Amino acid sequence: MTYYEVAVAAPLFDTLTYTQPPEEREVVPLGIRVLVPLRNRLVTGYIISSSNTPPELSYPIKALAERLDTAPLFPEQLIPFFRWLAAYYHYPLGEVIQTALPSGLRAGSGYEIILTETGRQQLPVALTTVKKRAAWMDRLLAKGAIQPGTTKAIRTKPAMQRLLRTWQTEGWIEIKEVLVNSAIKAKKETVVRLNSKLQEALPLYQSIEIPEKKKQTTTTLPLPLGIQEELKKSERKTLELFFQHCKGSPVLPRSELTRQYSGAGQALHSLADAGLISLEEQRVYRDPFGKVPPFFPQPETLTLEQQQVIGTLKEALDKGGFQPFLLHGVTGCGKTEVYLRATEHCLKAGKSVLILVPEIALSSQLEGHFYSRFGDILAILHSGIAKGERFDQWQRILQGKVRIVIGARSAVFAPLAKPGLIIVDEEHEPAYKQDDGLRYNGRDLAVLRAKFAECPILLASATPSVTSFYHAEQGKYRLLSMTKRVHDQAMPEVRIIDLRDKKQSPQSSFFSEQLLSALAQNLEKRQQSLLFVNRRGYAAFMLCRDCGHIIQCRHCKVSLTLHHKDNRLLCHYCGYSTTPNLICPDCGSSSIIGLGVGSERIEQEVRQVFPNAKVVRLDSDTTRDRKAYLRILEQVRNQEVDILVGTQMVAKGLHFPAMTLVGIVWADSGLGLPDYKAAERSYQLLAQVTGRAGRGEHPGKVIIQTHQPQHYVIEFAQSHAYQKLYTQELALRKALAYPPFGRLVNIRFSGKEEADVQKTAKAAASFLRSILTAQKTTEQSVEILGPAPAPLAMIRQRFRWQLLLKSGTPEFLHYLCDLLLENKKKFCGKDVRMTLDVDPENML
Predict the structure, then answer these.
(1) What mean pLDDT is predicted for residues 119-134?
(2) Has residue 218 got a pLDDT over 60?
(3) Lowest-confidence pick of 90-94, 194-198, 602-606, 764-768
(4) Which residues pair with 174 in a beta bridge?
(5) Are 313 and 352 members of one domain?
(6) Which residues of 691-716 are buried (b: 16+ CB within 10 A; e: fewer)?
(7) Which residues are annotated as a binding site?
(8) Whole-angstrom distance, CA of residue 629 vs CA of residue 841
(9) Which of 85, 182, 483, 629 could potentially form a cystine with 623 if both were Cys, beta carbons 3.0 to 4.6 Å apart?
(10) Which pLDDT tens digit goes with each residue over 13-64?
(11) What's the confidence (pLDDT) of residue 214?
């Protein structure tokens, strides 16, 4: 008998063992989804090992309930990778695997409510006495059953549970457990295949020259003798259409024929009955690209620095084995071409390549370069494409039909059996960190994945993270440098405007005279400009001038942002929105004004000052889908845009040679955040935005508006002095034992009642401190900060407190986390949620 180790998609940290089902004769492969019994329900699980030796367990071993896949969903080589993730991030292994897979692949059991014959007679009368008659009750009477999706919502309400129990006791309904299958399935279409005799006629038809105007009229088909005479008119026309559109192939989608001729459907069945064709089901893959990405030609020459870096990477690829590289290359130095040449070398060796980008927008930009060079051996994986498309991309990768994968952080789980090269673009970006569920860092997992795959990895950035650059200095990574732009273009000239001394412009309250003048000059020269503001919306918050009240989200302790176009106040944390109220809820005054600035407000101001300019805004409000984003990029690339207004989406990865001016409307937004990485991130953002200017034949100019011109971040951004920023930040972190000199775990508690959350956080802190006291661990080796309210003290109606663990010994930190989870029930009630964030990026 075969015993299977199964990781269930449930909050269980231990794996479970199941036996072979009686009807299953073959050994079920690793990586297969199965349904397994767990307590009194069926759940999805993943087979991660098998053995013929029965394990010693404290529970009776049950059989697998059902096999859900014909082939594995992930290669066996990923299983050790998943196990490591589960241990490092203290997350259930089954839920790790579920996170890795495309959404929509979860199966399980649900409950169906079925109306009995007695119920059909008695329930209509009983419903007349129900005070609040829900819509599902009438649906039950009309259809005779309620499906699991609706039943799940009904059964969460205690009053409805009591009502269902009463009806069940009366014999009016049955509640039956049923299998709920995956939401996403393979897409199939019917194709028409010619029989062998008709296939012989294909070359003859291809040799006949038929004028275009006669292609829709009857032609003489070169069919074998005896077939022509037997065909009906509709069958002949259908075959003619097939021969015209098949391009020499014996197979054509049925829809291609029925779309052009309404009689084709019946004719095809007749032809199939006669044995002249066969109708078959064939797997088709949904195309995420839409139209073909723009073409980017290969440059004729490489810079000396590009040649040196590419040469080093080729040597590493030929040698093989795990080799981590950090490429520090200034903006505009040609890093993308390095990626392309390294990929080309890897493909020639018969290996595959995985490329990570921090945001979907950057993926869309990079796709065009790789599609231009390598064609359709490319797959993309990110949440910007539909679920069905993502499922198909996953299957194409799994089946070896593609050799290049580009995607956001979740693409680190791409089912490549053994990649030959991994590239992480903009490795410094905090967007690589997942903020909920499995809180993994895509960049860090890429390094781990390369280690498991024994292949080189290239981390690249114009502004590397302090931690990565420190690793390079210490020899953990090999440092590669590109200090010059392509074609020896100069870095843009950066000018600082002190907003404290700014004279009020008669034209705008947000732009200095210097920035307005530079914009006007650029318009005269027919060159493009970029205005950057790190916030979307129209006004950052709504304030009552009489009492000072700020309009806040009713679910979060944060201000609502005004979105002028939609006339809505929107919470950027929970999505709550409401119509702006011009009356203060505190004092009743009508003196409500919008303060702060967002990209929508800047767009409006620019249009007012320069009414003849072509102005476009690029932020998450104007690019709700991938197509909208690509459309705006194409407009800018074709110089159909004079001034581009944008948020972080415009800060990196974009290459517009005609863009010569960058204006940073307010550079101070991130400098005051309560986060030890605030200065580093502010510099990175400013440096990246600055790098959009002067990438063509004309020199670039940058104007930074700030209230803190003497802040070291602003000074270093002006002089493009990354090394100085790194040195200063490293000294500060060393003094405080922050990464890279220490490791962090942020423990967050949240709940509906703040008193319960505070009590739980304090109890957890006391528990951890008692461990340190018992083991006589010094304060220098482990530091516990807090507990304290989180900077964002309430999100989605849940109060938040947090506890920060800091230590130079990661093993001991993980030991404390394990103890905390094992003893969670002692201090954490069911109304308070505890989450562990290992290596946190966001301290808010």
Answers:
(1) 83
(2) no
(3) 194-198
(4) 114
(5) yes
(6) bbbbbbebebbbbbbbebbebebbeb
(7) 544, 547, 553, 556, 571, 574, 584, 587
(8) 27
(9) 629
(10) 999 999 988 777 788 899 999 989 888 788 889 999 999 888 888 888 999 9
(11) 47
Q: How many whole angstroms from its chain centre is CA 479? A: 29
In a domain, 47, yes or no: yes
- CA-CA distance, 30 to 391, in Å (whole number)? 19
Q: Is residue 593 in some structural domain? A: no
Question: Domain count of the chain?
Answer: 6
Name the binding residues for Zn(2+): 544, 547, 553, 556, 571, 574, 584, 587
Q: pLDDT for 160-177, tens place per residue? A: 888 888 888 889 988 876
In whole angstroms, give the CA distance from residue 658 to residue 652. 16
Residues 372, 482 within the same domain: yes
Which one of 82, 100, 118 terminates a domain? 100
* Residues 166, 44 within the same domain: no
Domain presence at residue 197: yes
Domain end among 732, 765, 786:
732
Q: Using an 8 Å Cβ cutoff, are 440 and 286 in contact?
A: no
Output the domain CATH number for residue 774: 3.30.70.600
Contacts by residues 570-577 (CB-CB < 8 Å, ≥ 24 positions apart): 570/537, 572/536, 572/537, 573/792, 573/795, 573/796, 574/795, 574/796
Alpha-carbon span 265 to 279, nearest angstrom: 11
Statement to judge: residues 404 and 478 lie in one domain: yes
403 and 323 within one domain: yes
Please compute Rg for the chain using Cα positions.
Answer: 31
Residues 678 and 713 in one domain: yes
Q: Which tens digit of pLDDT belongs to each residue from 452-495?
A: 999 999 999 999 999 999 999 999 999 999 999 998 888 999 99
- DSSP result, 741-806: SSEEEEEEEEES-HHHHHHHHHHHHHHHHHHHHHTT--TTTEEEEEEEEEEEEEETTEEEEEEEEE
- How far apart are alpha carbons 475 and 452 in whole angstroms? 20
- State the pTM of this model: 0.84
Angle in degrees, CA 814, 819, 821, rounded to 5: 95
pLDDT of residue 225: 56
Q: Over the stretch 415-435, which tens digit does the pLDDT of each residue have?
A: 998 899 999 999 999 999 999
Contact by Cβ (8 Å): 557, 691: no
Same domain as 348, residue 313 = yes
- Own/partner contacts of 621-626, CB < 8 Å, gap of 24 or more, are 621/536, 621/537, 621/563, 621/565, 623/361, 623/649, 625/384, 626/290, 626/360, 626/364, 626/384, 626/385
User: In this structure, are 267 and 329 located in the same domain?
Assistant: no
**Contact indicator for 511, 505 with CB cutoff of 8 Å:** yes
pLDDT of residue 181: 66
Alpha carbon distance 290, 142 (integer Å): 42
| Token representation of residue 333 | 């130095």
Asked whether residue 256 is domain-assigned, the answer is yes
Least confident of 136-145, 399-408, 732-741: 136-145
pLDDT tens figures, 319-339: 999 999 999 999 989 999 999
